[in-house]
Give the backbone structure.
Amino acid sequence: MSWEPFVLAPPDHKAPFPQPMSHRDGLGDRLRIAAFAELQAVRAFGWASEHFTDVPATIIEGWQRQIPEEKLHFRLIVERMIRLGILPQKKTVSANLSETLYSCQSGKDFAIQIATAEHKGRLAALKMADYLQHRDPVTAQVFLRIARDEVAHVQLVMDHFDWTP
């Protein structure tokens, strides 16, 4: 599977840890990681919608509704990266999220795994928006938009399964 324009770290290596936000590459590292997570979510929701038959139709419909939002998140981040001159392929990224999701044996397991990732992503987006609100308000708004959308993504799983983040 191609992940262009991203470059995956080799399976036996970890992707580089993001630089601190005080470093000139800190924001770029986080934008790259966030954009790649959104791309992985797009593909994973599509795969799960076709793969799992052991969950209610409302879950599958929910996953399908989330795909356009995940695509929008990806586009917003990549467009911001382009405006800031940040190259997606500058550093390698990890496909651990995809590997975890594609290894799920049931729709419920997938739902909980991706909701956990969405919840963590939401918390990270809120933290980034707060940090950037006076430094880079445009990027802060991108992260706020993503954080708002992730609430419903997590709620879908909370409403159907006995799960709380």
